[in-house]
Specification:
There is one protein chain. The longest helix is centred in the first third of the chain and has 12 residues, at 35-46. This protein has helices spanning 35-46, 76-79, 116-124, 147-152, 191-202, 227-235, 246-249, 260-267; strands at residues 23-29, 51-54, 62-69, 84-92, 94-96, 105-108, 128-132, 141-142, 145-146, 162-174, 178-185, 206-216, 219-220, 255-258, 277-281, 289-293, 299-305, 322-327. It contains eight helices and 18 strands. It folds into three domains: 23-81 and 219-245, Pseudouridine synthase (2-Layer Sandwich); 90-207, Pseudouridine synthase (2-Layer Sandwich); 253-327, Archaeosine Trna-guanine Transglycosylase, Chain: A, domain 4 (Roll), CATH 2.30.130.10. The protein is an alpha+beta fold.
Length: 332
């Protein structure tokens, strides 16, 4: 007899007291759900009111979707700084109006014979900093309206190109009519647009057939929890063991450890001065994000650096070194 699928309804879940749960969940989003759908299900399962997601995935896409819980929602804006890694499969020979398989075919071309060497040459041309024009079928707003709303009405408006960074773009598989690659890129990169651009440069046209986000910074799809597994963990009252603590939520971020006096100042909303710095981890420049940790390693706040990491130890004691963006400890 097959195992019964978990019921996601509110009434089916034990109504455990969930106050005090703060951190992140690394979930493996299934195809067919919007990122907001996942947030709604997590709210129902955990009975937490403060739940949000970082980095939207289109409904057909799968893979890593980071969910903020409680104060973890305050980290969401900073998770955008992490690079994202995707595995993408393209259908060669046809372009669509949405740049993916959900759209209407607007052009077909003969694929011909593509060699792996030729494809790798094309892919390498996209590495580095490039410009992308956001697609009309996107959630961006123009004069208060979502672009996809206008697109469904047959209206196209001018969109400003954006700079994105492609760290690496690697060919994984190539067949007569499909191409699969892995890309590591900056936040805000549209892989659908990349797929269309690659197809144009190959000369045959292409659209995105399948997309999986395999990593957001240090958070990988191998570590991700499915919604079914989360539901089962809620039923067993073990789901909290899957919550990534705040201190680990920004793993790999440049960081400053502050003294006990610096930690007390942060509780009053006062940014740290050079005299409060006990240790600097990583490299950062002026205006770049930096995490602030207390003497015990707890993540206290996130801000932007006022001076370079290299200058931190040579600054006047009274100089403010970080402009606060988010304070994660309760202020006094």
């Amino acid at each position: 007899m097959g195992r019964k699928s978990p019921d996601f309804s509110v009434r089916s879940m034990p109504n455990k007291h969930a106050d005090g749960v703060e951190g992140l969940l690394n979930l493996n989003k299934p195809a067919g759900l919007t990122s907001h759908d996942v947030v709604v299900r997590v709210r129902r399962l955990t009975h937490l009111s403060r739940v949000g997601h970082a980095g939207t995935l289109d409904p057909p896409a799968t893979g890593v979707l980071i969910i903020g819980l409680g104060k973890g929602t305050k980290l969401i804006q900073f998770l955008h700084e992490y690079s994202k890694t995707y595995r993408a499969t393209l259908t060669l020979g046809s372009r669509t109006d949405t740049y993916d398989a959900t759209g209407k075919v607007i052009e077909t071309r003969d694929v011909g014979r593509l060699s792996p060497t030729a494809v790798r040459t094309v892919l390498s041309g996209f590495e580095g900093t490039i410009e992308q024009t956001p697609p009309m079928y996107s959630a961006l707003k123009w004069q208060g309206q979502r672009l996809y709303t206008l697109a469904r009405q047959g209206i196209e408006v001018e969109r400003r190109p954006r700079q994105v960074h492609i760290r690496r773009l690697t060919l994984l598989e190539l067949s007569a009519d499909t191409l699969t690659f892995e890309v590591e890129c900056s936040g805000g990169t549209y892989v659908r647009v990349l797929a269309d651009d690659i197809g144009l440069r190959l000369g045959c046209g292409a659209h995105l057939r399948q997309l999986t986000r395999t990593a957001v910074g240090p958070h990988t799809v191998e570590q991700a929890l499915t919604l079914e597994a989360l539901a089962e963990a809620v039923q067993r009252s073990t789901w909290r063991t899957h919550v990534i603590p705040l201190a680990q939520g920004l793993a790999g971020f440049p960081a400053i450890a502050v003294t006990s006096d610096g930690a007390k100042a942060l509780r009053h909303g006062i940014p740290p001065k050079a005299a409060h710095v006990s240790r600097v981890d990583g490299v950062f420049g002026v205006g770049e994000p930096v995490a602030l940790h207390g003497p015990d390693g707890a993540l206290l706040a996130v801000g932007t650096a006022c001076i370079d990491a290299a200058e931190m130890g040579r600054s006047a004691p009274a100089m403010v070194v970080v402009r606060l963006s988010r304070v994660l400890v309760d202020t006094l």
